[in-house]
Design goal:
mainly beta; about 190 residues; globular
């Protein structure tokens, strides 16, 4: 959270509804710019984050929304579309878990640290120390629910994935990813830091 810093992501969204013959893929770009410090509605110091979007790298950026983020002694929080999420809980330790939705009206959602201080490479960037926070992780012959975020030390979020797919067919030798009936896949990957 340093004023003036920005990070740009490539977003890939895939929606599948086989019964309706929907196989839709959208690719676009999001830039988050850390704007001015402010006092949030909890009377804490926070930062305004401006989100800009564009469909192609040749287009101009357009303001999409404004979020806020802050770090307290015990949490790293982000307000996205007027919902406050506890993204990370301190102290950071392996298998530490918390309710990421504790500060919003959504159902309880257990977030869990699955790895600490791991190297991670994405596009041309290499990071020595990354933290992975898992939001969902369940799998069977007919579904995959997987959601996680990877944070790099001193940079923040560098990768996010949410995969929710279901199948009405059970074919033991064929992975569920190859027999999807309905599903959504969302990937957010770092492409530029300024």
């Amino acid at each position: 959270l340093n004023q003036g810093k920005s990070i740009t992501y490539k977003i890939t969204e895939i929606n599948i509804d086989k019964p309706s013959n929907v196989y839709d893929t959208s690719i676009y770009f999001v830039r988050e710019i850390i704007d001015i410090p402010l006092i949030d509605n909890q009377n804490d110091s926070a930062y305004r984050i401006e989100l800009y979007t564009r469909i192609s790298e040749n287009e101009n950026w357009k303001i999409h929304s404004v979020w806020t983020a802050k770090r307290t002694e015990l949490t790293a929080e982000k307000v996205e579309e007027n919902l406050r999420f506890i993204k990370i809980r301190f102290p950071v330790k392996q298998d530490y878990s918390w309710n990421g939705n504790l500060l919003n009206e959504l159902d309880n959602k257990e977030y869990r640290i699955s790895s600490i201080n791991e190297p991670y490479s994405i596009n041309e960037y290499q990071f020595d120390s990354c933290l992975t926070v898992v939001h969902d992780s369940s799998e069977s012959l007919i579904h995959i629910d997987l959601a996680y975020e990877i944070y790099a030390y001193k940079y923040g979020l560098i990768y996010k994935e949410e995969t929710y797919i279901n199948s009405q067919e059970v074919i033991f030798d064929l992975p569920v990813e190859q027999r999807i009936t309905t599903g959504t896949i969302f990937k957010q990957e770092l492409i530029e830091i300024e």
